[in-house]
C-alpha cells in the first residue's frame, strides 16, 4: 500500500504529464501530386487560331485544382517562321512565366502548328532545361501534305510541308532530346495532318485517340483525361 507521501507524488506526476504540451507536428509541405506542386502550363495554339481554342482544356485543368495563375496561353502570329521568329518569342514568353510563378520548369501543350513552334524551342532554343512535360495534339511533326495548299505564299505553311527545313531539323538525331517527357495524341481520321503517322515521335508516349477531326482533339474528354494524366506523371 502506498504511503500518503507516495500517493501525493504519484498524483503530482500524473498532473505534470497531463499538463505537458503535445509534441509539435511538423508542417506538411504540398503533396507531390497536388496542383500547387505541379508546373505552370503553357498552351501553344495552332495555325490560324488564337488562345481561345484552349477553353475546354483550361476548364478541365481548373476542375483538377489548377489556379488560373498557373495556366498561360501563348498568342502569336501564325504566319511567321518557326525557327527564325516564333520559337524565340515562345522562349521569351516561357521565361516570363517562370519569373512570374517562380517555377523552374513549365509544361507545354501544343496543338497542330504549335507543336513545331514548341518543339523547335525545346530542341534548339534551350527548352530542354525549362520544359518538364511536352504535349502535341495533332501536331504535323513530320510534315503534312495539306500544307502545300498555302506554302506558296505563307512561311508557316512552308515550315509544315514534308521535308521542309524545320521538319528535317526537328527529325535529325534525337526527336525527343533531353530529360523532357514527351507525349503525342493523334487521330486516324485527321483531315489536316496527312499522313496520320506524322504525329507520333520516337521516344514519346504516343496515344491514338480514335477517329476525331483535327480540331476535335481540343475538346475531346478522353484526350483531355490523357493529357492531364500525363502532366501528373
Features of this protein?
globular, alpha/beta, 6 strands, 13% strand, 35% helix, 233 residues, six-stranded parallel beta sheet
Notes on the structure:
- There is one protein chain.
- With 233 residues, the protein is of the alpha/beta class.
- Helix content is 35%, strand content 13%.
- The protein has 7 helices and 6 strands; from the N terminus they run αβαβαβαβααββα.
- It has helices at 4-19, 55-63, 82-101, 113-124, 155-160, 165-171, 221-231, and strands at residues 41-44, 71-74, 106-111, 131-137, 181-186, 205-208.
- The protein has a 6-stranded parallel sheet, with helices on both faces.
- The radius of gyration is 26 Å and the shape is globular.
- Residues 1-31 have low confidence and may be disordered.
What structural class do helix, strand and pairing data support?
A: alpha/beta
Distance between the termini: 66 Å
Main beta sheet, described? Answer: 6 strands, parallel
**What are the low-pLDDT stretches, counting only 5+ consecutive residues below 50?**
1-31
Tell me the overall shape: globular
Name the strands of the widest sheet in spatial order.
2-1-3-4-5-6
The overall pLDDT average reads 89
> Which range best describes the helical content: under 10%, 10-25%, 25-40%, 40-55%, 55-70% or over 70%?
25-40%
Oligomer: single chain
Content of β-strand: 5-15%
State the order of secondary-structure elements, H for helix, E for strand.
Answer: HEHEHEHEHHEEH
Radius of gyration: 26 Å
Total number of helical segments?
A: 7
The count of DSSP E runs of length 2 or more, i.e. the number of strands, is 6
